[in-house]
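Dear colleague,

Thank you for sharing your sequence with our group. We've completed the structure prediction you requested, and as agreed, I am returning the results in plain text so they can be pasted directly into your records. Please verify that the sequence below matches your submission; if there's any discrepancy, let me know and we will rerun it promptly.
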Amino acid sequence: MLEILAAITIVGLVLAVSVPASARLYQSMQYRQAVRDVVTLFASARYQAVNTGRAQDVVINPRAKELRLNDTLKRLPADLNVLVHSARELNDRDAGIIRFYPEGGSSGGGVDIEVPDRWGVRVNVDWLIGRVSQEKYAFD
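Please find the predicted structure tokens below.
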């Protein structure tokens, strides 16, 4: 009986340590996938603009945490904060728009994706050459 009680205690301790760690791991995985989705969507918009010869708009709705390029819709996890930096003249009421032009440039801007009170990444789109880059930051 004592051995069973000791085994149950050990299992309980292992679960008490591993469950919070697995929750943080899952949140980190969602965050990294969200960043990949944004970078990929921007790169795809630039490629389509150059390839088709027509401007392509990426519409970012920070409240709904959605990004749209034509028929492609990417939803970001609800527990992330999303901020948009884009040209004021292109913005819609609830959404920011980053436009990619056929010659390879863009309207410029970016998206900040943050895990509240921990860390974030700014995905920047260069206005001159349309290059997409990332910059990580942490909250102090």
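Summary note from our side: The chain has one domain: 2-138.

Kind regards,
the structure core
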